[in-house]
Amino acid sequence: MTALTQTLLLVVVLTALALVLRWAFGNDRRAVPDYTGEDFGLLSEVAAVPTGEAADVLAGRLREAGIRTTVVRRGDIHRLLVWPADAADAKLLLH
User: Fold this and answer.
1) Domain 42-95 belongs to what topology?
2) pTM score > 0.70 for this model?
């Protein structure tokens, strides 16, 4: 093979590789990230309270019942988040 043939073959292979990678990974249709702070991903909000002490009391009540919980503070509001499968039980326990 001559140098010109090798160069052309390399260009063809790299172009084909680029097209395959663009086809496989180029269609990024994921949702736009939420920059408002109101989207908690997979977790569901079950309560919102004004103080950290109240949030800790409610989170302790949920944990005693075996429900995994997360407390998130957004501004002056403390939100209790649980997995969707536990949301109904958590709301029933808290209300």
Assistant:
1) Alpha-Beta Plaits (3.30.70)
2) no
